Amino acid sequence: MKFSRVTAAIVMASLSAPLFAASEQSVGTLTAASQGTVIARDGKLLPARAGQTLFVGDRVITRGSSAKVAMQGCNVALKPTSILSVGTSACAAPQSFAATQDDAATGGAAAGGSSTGYIVGGLALLAIGGGVAAATSNTSTKAVSP
Questions:
Q1: How high is the pLDDT of residue 110?
Q2: Which of 44-48, 94-98, 142-146 has the highest mean pLDDT?
Q3: DSSP state of 64
Q4: If you ran DSSP here, which 8-state letter would residue 100 be given?
């Protein structure tokens, strides 16, 4: 029996369909979400709502809001300014991206805030000054034609 290339491609696609379906299985549910909570999925930000299904690779982000997530036997509460990466394993703790009190007291200098800006600014001024000096200095006595 002869198979054409088209038939072979259709058979391969139909056999691999369960593989793609397995990657889209639900691993959790967003049980509560206040306004401002979003889900990052496939490079897009989706507004979150209670009852929404979560998949592997999703990230629940609370900007100034809060949310609750139920996944495989555990519940996770997200405080404002937190990120929860959804995975296949046991529940992970959400990570906060809010400034800590130490960062607020030092102006963020300990985390590379304002002191880094001064260093970069100083190096930029040094580079500009060197470029101006190189462009304006002429040690040659010969005339240069345009």
A1: 45
A2: 44-48
A3: S
A4: P
Residues sharing a CB contact under 8 Å with residue 32, sequence separation 6 or more, in sequence order:
50, 66, 67, 68
Task: Decide: 84 and 28 in contact? Cβ < 8 Å.
Answer: no
Report which of 61, 64, 21 is spatially closest to residue 41, judged by C-alpha positions: 61
Amino acid at 138: N
- What angle (nearest 5°) sits at the alpha carbon of residue 87, between those of residues 84 and 92? 50
Which H or E run contains 23? helix 5-23
Answer whether residue 120 shows pLDDT above 90: no
Backbone angles phi, psi at 5, to 5 degrees: -65, -35
Q: What are phi and psi of 62, to 5 degrees?
A: -110, 115
What is the amino acid identity at position 88?
T
* Angstrom distance (rounded) from CA 54 to CA 36: 17
State the number of CA atoms in the 13 A half-sphere of 137 facing the CB: 7
Tell how strand 52-55 and strand 26-33 pair up: antiparallel
Contact 47, 34 (CB under 8 A): no
The confidence score (pLDDT) of residue 45 equals 92
Rounded distance between C-alpha atoms, residue 114 and residue 108, angstroms? 6
